[in-house]
Design a protein that fits this description.
Chains A, B, C, D: This is TetR family transcriptional regulator. The structure is a homotetramer. The first copy, chain A, is an all-alpha fold. Chain A is about 75% helix and about 0% strand. Chain A is elongated. The structure holds a DNA duplex.
Chain lengths: ~220, ~220, ~220, ~220
DNA sequence: CATGAATGAGATTTCATTCAT
DNA sequence: AATGAATGAAATCTCATTCAT
């Protein structure tokens, strides 16, 4: 089952095959070390065809980044429950995030490790995505403050810092949870893993966020 | 008659000059895009001399990683107050971490972005360093639990997750606080910035850690 | 309902369209730099069709050269008054030459610059055309000698040299007069320009030719 | 005698060897068809060394054009007798021109055929050289007019046309005389050939120039 | 201690050309 | 009559690395 080598495939399909191959290759080798030869071979086509459709290594990499970025944002967006309370929204968003990164480790690797490391044009694309996510978290923190009656003030920079910390923590957990994958039935395992990981982060951070919106602060001697 | 170009410099000194140049170049260009030509020129020596002392591009990069890793670990280690309570130790360690990464942005960029992106041998070196730090944080969480009387149980995997989240949050904050550097007198500013950033993270996480050691957990329904 | 893109065009017409596109492209880009892609697009057809009709880039270029060569020779031939005296024939031939090269600059560029520059097969085609023209001029010089009573002897090699000089002068003037085109009504302008340019060359050379057929020679000391 | 393969040669020497090889290769193959591989092999070095010294194919070609241009201009300049009468200056300049192009056919081919055919930057370099020579001839025609008492007027454009015709005739003769090279002792042959060729052109043109400065013109009816 | 001279191997990219429909 | 899909071969250029001095 499955043709050994599919020939004369429509352009749109071939392009996706190429992007698939490119994601795998860029994730494993890095942008510079991945050669167009290797990508073409992984896609099952000749190098000139890759150039005919994607124009250059740069454009290919950009196309990959854009596709993976859109997929990740879509996954998280689809996961959040828009009208739920702030903590519930954060929780469902995190679950979506961890589930997607677990299911698409190569895409996540390209976004998180490769794209940020190889020059402005690519880094900017990812920075924009990260900014989107940071803003989402920032808004949730604001909403949480409102829900809590907001006894104390939360300076803008303070909120921004908290959001960046949250996002960084999530990124780190995604990597850790992917690399320390246990055994067990796959689908099940991943699902529960995404849930557990999201819970870990909620446990760590939610109480602190609540205290801050109440105007309390940690202090060295405290 | 000061020599315009210092010749006949002792080996140890030359090596450090080369490593300095290499850190800068690797940080700015990335591992693959940084050429030995550029590094040699930045170091003010000829290429064969770089090879005589550091043997190959791989070994040069490894030497850079090792030096920067040692410097970062030393900075954090020197910053913590060994016999203080757990929160105080974490706090001082974070201050040390943020101060060092702010003062050595190129070294941090090499460790955080380049080394993890370019293949196993280098990534392992950084993973080891990260493991050191994660373990340090893990121990602190354990100590905090003990100090708190430890009503509930903290599963190992749970603690590990918390530690990874803390480290990821710290990394993200380091990057954010470096790139959003404000104005003001420099030395002063950086110091206070490291303090603020550390406080942000303590505020976010310490309360949650405390609740967990008390056996409480966040749950979707509030 | 005029078709936006004419399809099902008879072969002969399509071939001329392709040759038109090829002349333009070869003239502007040069033989090597002109790609079959570009030519096919300029002709408004697909690449395989160009191959179906013209077989290969070499054959396409050859076809172009042959067509332009024939057109130029036809224009000059049509311009000369066969039974007029030698100087009159030369004069009208030159007018025809300058008028044609001015009206078909791309064709002239291909013949004069590209075809001679890119290897034997093409250069030979143009060399043959040039030989035709040189022979025509050679014959005219012979005729002029006869008309003049031919006091002196004109060695064959001497005549050949004169003919080559005339042709080279004409080629140079064609280029110069095309590139230094003035203003004024176009058709008129070109015509008069061809006439002026022909007159310039007649003025320069005819007296000398007459002297030579009279057996006189220029000598260093005057 | 003659090392089979000279190694470790100083840069200046190697560069000339490379330029020598490049002139030959560009002349025979044309700019595009000449590969850097071929040039490097003809120079007896590896390709990277060519790039190290000459940077790119474009720059290599430019260097070739500049060197050959300077050599040709120097040869002609050295040949003319500055204080002689106009016809004598023209005569000696032509001799120098024909002698140089005969001795350096590849250089001449690069300047005359290749450089003008492959894009603006190169064509401009040769156009500038040609303009130098045309101006020299223009001045000589002006001087001749003065010497002759200059009964009639010579319009600027008329003079320019004459100069361009002269230069074109010389170029054509150079090519013809090179390609129709007879047998016989080499050095001798070439010398006499340059002289003969120069004489041919003087015979053709000098009388006409004289008539024009006297105000006479050729007219169709004779 | 230090370097100018040199190269093997491999990267990206382009192009003329064909096949299947 | 006409084309979208596909490729083998070769071009320019770069880089880590070594020798001879």
């Amino acid at each position: 089952m499955g043709a050994v080598k599919s020939k004369r495939v429509p352009r749109a399909v071939r392009e996706q095959q190429m992007l698939d191959a490119a994601v795998r290759t860029f994730a494993r080798r890095g942008y510079r070390a991945a050669s167009m030869d290797e990508i073409a071979e992984a896609a099952g086509v000749s190098k000139p065809l890759v150039y005919l459709y994607l124009n250059s290594k740069d454009e290919l990499f950009t196309a990959v980044i854009r596709r993976e970025r859109a997929a990740l944002v879509a996954a998280v967006t689809a996961a959040v429950e828009p009208d739920a309370p702030a903590d519930r929204q954060l929780w469902s968003g995190l679950k979506g995030f961890f589930a997607h990164t677990a299911e698409h480790p190569d895409g996540w690797a390209v976004l998180h490790q490769q794209a940020r490391t190889h020059g402005e044009p690519f880094a900017l694309e990812v920075a924009a995505m990260r900014a989107e996510i940071v803003e989402f978290v920032t808004d949730l923190i604001g909403a949480a403050a409102k829900e809590a009656g907001c006894a104390g003030e939360l300076a803008d920079r303070e909120v921004a810092g908290l959001a960046h910390a949250m996002v960084g923590a999530a990124e780190s957990l995604a990597e850790w949870s992917n690399s320390s994958e246990g055994e067990g039935a796959y689908g099940e395992r991943e699902h529960s893993s995404a849930k557990d990981t999201a819970a870990t982060l909620m446990n760590l951070a939610w109480a602190g966020l609540g205290r801050m919106t109440d105007g309390e602060r940690w202090a060295p001697g405290g």
